[in-house]
């Protein structure tokens, strides 16, 4: 049975519906990321799980128990906020102990749990510091320890890394994932950063305009995006406008070049425009076009970025970019040079709205 | 040249404020003919009515502060958290005591709570004291509310509230353990201003016939020469002491301010 279930959840603010018929089941111990642009409804869903917003419709249940009539302080949910939200009047140890004190835990148990939590985030030596005496990364680790101290049934992370600098973000996200796996706590993580979501999640929910466009593992979401939005939002994507030549044999034309797709396009008619997509890293340069899995075009520009070379190529109407690993033995292609890009037929995706 | 004008303006201002005070202090020390002495102060401090009224006013000030904090902190917090649209109206209401004379307020109270009313507060000493405390709280409302509201503005009360709620805290715990400690400087500023107002207040205490310090000062001023000056100097010292304490507590709350 699913641990956290959202069934037909809706939320409207006045006439604006920000969450539309959202359904999801989350297993115990899963790490789920809600990924999407600002205003897509991901934080609203998180806040409804926490109890800070009341759903306009639908139900949310945790461990089989409906959360409908429970106030936020009755849900036993830990939450970490973007702005840390440490209590400024309390030091680190007092912040971590707060939830346990509120729950009326014995003093010895509180002291032991605070020590355990501070050990978990490797900040035992800063127990007496006040929030204003700590860096953003340290404060967020304390906020994580504080949220975990009362042993919540679900951990909610509301863009916890957004206010941190790039280096700290990477190390802290790995730390969060390691702690989550160690404790086996069901976690919902909200972010607009695709790299964060891809790197630490068991499953990703890609949100678009109040609904989930796709729910899947990072591998599925990246490699087989369900919609045009998912394809364009997760990772970099080349969109190639083509025309259907023969739907029965999945034949399409890109400019004056023809290809056979792996994906079925039986729903289209001959002559219909069709949007195809390809990740920049899926192709490689070839000597000549062989078969149906290569495209030839003129190099517009080639940028040396160290480990990779990013090349933009004109296909006679569409411009695509592709990345290839730097090979010291090979010079990057020059602008104006005609090159052939070879790829696997399955790498060319058909975009649906 | 600009600097010269600034210094000139400052000097004139200081002379305007300080000269009368110097004159009054000088006069208060001249009770004994020909020499400076603290006789006027000794007479005032030795007067049992001074002790009685001063203690009464201090107790009233403390009661007013406690009542004011209990009234204003939750109100300002709730308005900021849940009813931000009402803020301009609440601010307007809290500013009314500045434009409505104290005599109007106290007459209103007497009409509403006299012995033949549904709530005859003026029928007993305790009732009248409670009524006086409400009056003082009304007079101090503009200062207390503004102080607390400014303090609340400096912290992210919405996120702190949600953080506390997610950790299991109810409203009382949130107010007592999170909000109040983080606006303590603001609350103390309001408290000291309330204290200064209550200590010198005359109209309400006189019309409600309570033995407060304000009416005592007036009584003394009408019948004596040097003692009122000594009392005024002491009153000024008390007010300045309160203002000094506001500055002092502001420094003590360094942690909270830095975090905010």
From TrEMBL, chain A:
PROSITE patterns: ABC_TRANSPORTER_1 (PS00211), ABC_TRANSPORTER_2 (PS50893)
Keyword Nucleotide-binding on entry: yes
Molecular function terms, GO-annotated: ATP binding; ATP hydrolysis activity; transmembrane transporter activity
Pfam families, per database record: ABC_tran (PF00005), TOBE_2 (PF08402)
Coiled coil: none
Transport found in the keyword field: yes
GO (cellular component) term, any one: ATP-binding cassette (ABC) transporter complex
Keywords attached to this entry: ATP-binding, Nucleotide-binding, Transport
Residues in ABC transporter domain copies: 4-234
Domain of life: Bacteria
UniProt GO BP: quaternary ammonium group transport
Similarity comment: Belongs to the ABC transporter superfamily.
Protein's name according to its UniProt entry: Spermidine/putrescine ABC transporter ATP-binding protein
Taxonomic source organism: Metarhizobium album
Organism ancestry: Bacteria, Pseudomonadati, Pseudomonadota, Alphaproteobacteria, Hyphomicrobiales
Automatic annotation (TrEMBL), chain B:
Keyword Membrane tagged: yes
Key words, A-Z: Cell inner membrane, Cell membrane, Membrane, Transmembrane, Transmembrane helix, Transport
A Pfam match: BPD_transp_1
Membrane topology classification: Multi-pass membrane protein
InterPro entries registered for this protein in UniProt: MetI-like, MetI-like_sf
Entry's localization field: Cell inner membrane; Cell membrane
GO cellular component, one term: plasma membrane
Major location (coarse): membrane
Domain ABC transmembrane type-1: 54-249
Top-rank taxon: Bacteria
PROSITE patterns the UniProt entry points to: ABC_TM1 (PS50928)
Entry annotated with the keyword Cell inner membrane: yes
GO BP: transmembrane transport
Parts of the chain that traverse the membrane: 54-77, 89-112, 118-145, 183-208, 228-249
PANTHER family: INNER MEMBRANE ABC TRANSPORTER PERMEASE PROTEIN YDCV (PTHR43357)
Family per record: Belongs to the binding-protein-dependent transport system permease family.
Stated name of the protein: Spermidine/putrescine ABC transporter permease
Originating organism: Metarhizobium album
